[in-house]
Amino acid sequence: MEGHQAQYYPPPSTSSSLALLPPQNPSYLFPPSSTSMNPPPLPEPHHHQQAQVPDIDWISLLSGHHDHQINNNEPAAMVEVNNNENNVIEAAREERGSNKRKGGEGRKISVMKKASRPRFAFQTRSADDILDDGYRWRKYGQKAVKNSLYPRSYYRCTHHTCSVKKQVQRLSKDTSIVVTTYEGVHNHPCEKLMETLTPLLKQMQFLSRF
DNA sequence: CGCGTTTGACCTGCGC
DNA sequence: GCGCAGGTCAAACGCG
């Protein structure tokens, strides 16, 4: 991902105000590591685009309430810093396992989780809806969205200990733009990254002997 | 056979 | 209370 200037976002404020980057200022944004949140995964470049044209238009962050949604005109994301997030997720998972029923499984819990999970959203200019971000995702739903020609797809990380979700939706106003919203934090390494790095690390270890 | 997708049903929150 | 919209579940299905 050359041409992208990684940039730290200012620490999330306690207000619910939205902090958006203008599209003409492409950059990756994520909070300082002290917030215990991972940066959003960096999607791989899409070959149909010219090299100098960034795929990522912007990433926006905000902190505040859980009540939000991606507007068709102004995709936005929220981030909520909550150090107890993993506890909440684990509690939800246990509850889900012990209270199975069709359709309504874990409903209240999902609301609880929703209120405490960090979210990142960003736009990508791509013909493909699915970005290869290195993680494995399982699609668990698709819904038609009001005032949008395109449905919203719901994905969950397939890693058994990870409950990160993402939503993918194409803008009806600009069909070349895909809005991806990540919810939660991966608690495991990126598989693809590890696949790539492991042989390199081994080689480095081997060479370091000499 | 395992894993991922599709899709209709169901649940919750919210506005009126 | 009702209807709508968003989010989730899980059976059925497809594919390698």
UniProtKB/TrEMBL annotation:
<keyword id="KW-0805">Transcription regulation</keyword>
<dbReference type="InterPro" id="IPR036576">
    <property type="entry name" value="WRKY_dom_sf"/>
</dbReference>
<protein>
    <submittedName>
        <fullName>Putative WRKY transcription factor 24 isoform X1</fullName>
    </submittedName>
</protein>
<keyword id="KW-0539">Nucleus</keyword>
<dbReference type="GO" id="GO:0003700">
    <property type="term" value="F:DNA-binding transcription factor activity"/>
</dbReference>
<keyword id="KW-0804">Transcription</keyword>
<feature type="region of interest" description="Disordered">
    <location>
        <begin position="1"/>
        <end position="51"/>
    </location>
</feature>
<feature type="domain" description="WRKY">
    <location>
        <begin position="126"/>
        <end position="191"/>
    </location>
</feature>
<dbReference type="Pfam" id="PF03106">
    <property type="entry name" value="WRKY"/>
</dbReference>
<keyword id="KW-0238">DNA-binding</keyword>
<dbReference type="GO" id="GO:0005634">
    <property type="term" value="C:nucleus"/>
</dbReference>
<dbReference type="GO" id="GO:0043565">
    <property type="term" value="F:sequence-specific DNA binding"/>
</dbReference>
<dbReference type="InterPro" id="IPR044810">
    <property type="entry name" value="WRKY_plant"/>
</dbReference>
<dbReference type="InterPro" id="IPR003657">
    <property type="entry name" value="WRKY_dom"/>
</dbReference>
